[in-house]
Structure formats: structure tokens, C-alpha cells
TrEMBL record:
Full protein name: 4-hydroxybenzoate polyprenyltransferase
Family matches, as Gene3D superfamilies: UbiA prenyltransferase
GO molecular function, one term: 4-hydroxybenzoate polyprenyltransferase activity
GO cellular component: mitochondrial inner membrane
Membrane topology: Multi-pass membrane protein
Keyword Membrane: yes
Annotated pathway: Cofactor biosynthesis; ubiquinone biosynthesis
Cellular compartment(s): Membrane
Catalytic activity: an all-trans-polyprenyl diphosphate + 4-hydroxybenzoate = a 4-hydroxy-3-(all-trans-polyprenyl)benzoate + diphosphate; all-trans-decaprenyl diphosphate + 4-hydroxybenzoate = 4-hydroxy-3-(all-trans-decaprenyl)benzoate + diphosphate; all-trans-nonaprenyl diphosphate + 4-hydroxybenzoate = 4-hydroxy-3-(all-trans-nonaprenyl)benzoate + diphosphate
Alphabetized UniProt keyword annotations: Isoprene biosynthesis, Membrane, Transferase, Transmembrane, Transmembrane helix, Ubiquinone biosynthesis
Pfam (any one): UbiA
Length: 249
């Protein structure tokens, strides 16, 4: 009799435990033991590695090349985008209705933006090399830090401008002349902060030149009713973002 009762009690406890396991499976799992078909916790973001960035590309480049890449600010691409975007606006506006912008022109202007932004930064650092040494934010720039000599930066500037000229020569004659005219702004902009409290205006006039050049590259000449409002709107945009940038430092 006692054996029979004991057997029923054992079966009842097993059934009860089995029922609880079905109703509350989380409570019955062994701590840390994954079940069949269960997803294991993913690794934390740090374990997956950081996303690829241009700063990482520059850091992984051959050491003799790194100062030149930093001189042209390849590790800080926001300036290149700010130079490139006005070009895309005008190229897009010049496209035929219902058509996509000219991808060949977009790629040409993208290449030109990288080269001319690099050339502008090189000119800026050559002009300001003595001042950069005295400012914490700029003291580690390649010329100020002595990683590149003035002569080496001058040769590097010539290489960038030569490549940019090659891009410019792919455009029509009107655009070649218009693009060459922007070089005066590129050279003189770094000096504006020495003679005026509005260097952002000079930067805006320089950085938004692509709003004129992009349209002329497609249409053969500038249409003032389209290009001038776009150009001066870009200048105002630059005044805003560069003033914010200045107040951040």
C-alpha cells in the first residue's frame, strides 16, 4: 500500500514538474545554458569592431604618406562634402525634366572637390604655419608640427592642382575659364581672417562656386536667374554653419 502511494506521488511530482516546465520554460532552464534553437546573446558593439572611416584609412596608410593625407584633411571629409554639395545642386537642377543628374559629371565634380579641398587646406596651412604652432587646436597640423617642410607642401600643392586641372579640362571652355577664376578665391581666403571679421563670407564665396560651375558644365554657360540665387543661398548657408563652427572652438 505504501509502495503504491509512493509510486503515485513520484509520478504526480514528475507530471507537475513537466507541466511547469511547459508553462514556464524560462524558470526551468539552467542558468547560462542555451536551449535547442535558442539564439545566443550577440557580442557587444565594441567586440564587433569599429565601422570603417576615413580617419582609420589614414591611420592605416604607410607612415610617410600619412602627413600628406592629413594635410589635405582626408581624415575629415565634412569639408569635402560642403564643397561638393553645391555642385550636386546645380548639376541636378540642370538635368532634363524627369531625368537623373549626369553621373559622369557628379563623379568628375566629386573628384575635383577632394582635390580642391585638399589644395585649399594646403594653402591655408602654408599661410598659417607660424600661427598654427601657437594654437592648441592646430599645433599638430603637419606643417606646424614639422612633419612636412614648406617645400614639400608646395610640391604636394602643385600635384593636387595639376590633377584638379586635369579634371577641369574635361569640361567645356566656358566652365574651364569659370573654374580657373575660383583659384583667386582659394588662394586669398586664408588671408581674410587677418583683415576682416567676416572670413565666413569669403569662405562662402569660395565653397559655393560649384553652384555656378555645375550648371555651366551641363548647359554650357550660367543662367543668372538660376545660378545666382543658388549661389548666394549657399553663401548664406556657409555663413551660418561656419559661424556655428567658430563658436564651438
Amino acid at each position: 500500500m505504501l509502495g503504491l502511494l509512493g509510486g503515485r506521488l513520484t509520478l504526480g511530482l514528475r507530471a507537475s514538474a513537466w507541466g511547469r516546465a511547459r508553462c514556464f520554460p524560462v524558470l526551468t532552464r539552467a542558468a547560462g545554458a542555451p536551449q535547442v534553437g535558442e539564439r545566443t546573446a550577440s557580442a557587444p558593439p565594441e567586440a564587433r569592431g569599429r565601422p570603417l572611416s576615413l580617419a582609420a584609412v589614414v591611420s592605416s596608410a604607410p607612415r610617410p604618406l600619412q602627413p600628406y593625407l592629413r594635410l589635405m584633411r582626408l581624415d575629415k571629409p565634412i569639408g569635402t562634402w560642403l564643397l561638393y554639395l553645391p555642385c550636386t545642386w546645380s548639376i541636378g537642377l540642370a538635368a532634363e525634366p524627369g531625368c537623373f543628374p549626369d553621373w559622369y559629371m557628379l563623379s568628375l565634380f566629386g573628384t575635383g572637390a577632394i582635390l580642391m579641398r585638399g589644395a585649399g587646406c594646403t594653402i591655408n596651412d602654408m599661410w598659417d604655419r607660424d600661427y598654427d604652432k601657437k594654437v592648441t587646436r592646430t599645433a599638430n597640423r603637419p606643417i606646424a608640427a614639422g612633419d612636412i617642410s614648406t617645400f614639400q607642401s608646395f610640391v604636394f600643392l602643385g600635384g593636387q592642382l595639376s590633377l584638379a586641372l586635369g579634371v577641369l579640362l574635361c569640361l567645356n571652355y566656358y566652365s574651364i575659364a569659370l573654374g580657373a577664376a575660383s583659384l583667386l578665391l582659394v588662394i586669398t581666403y586664408p588671408l581674410m581672417k587677418r583683415i576682416t571679421y567676416w572670413p565666413q563670407l569669403a569662405l562662402g564665396l569660395t565653397f559655393n562656386w560649384g553652384a555656378l560651375l555645375g550648371w555651366s558644365a551641363i548647359k554650357g554657360s550660367c543662367d543668372p536667374s538660376v545660378c545666382l540665387p543658388l549661389y548666394f543661398s549657399g553663401v548664406m548657408w556657409t555663413l551660418i554653419y561656419d559661424t556655428i563652427y567658430a563658436h564651438q572652438y
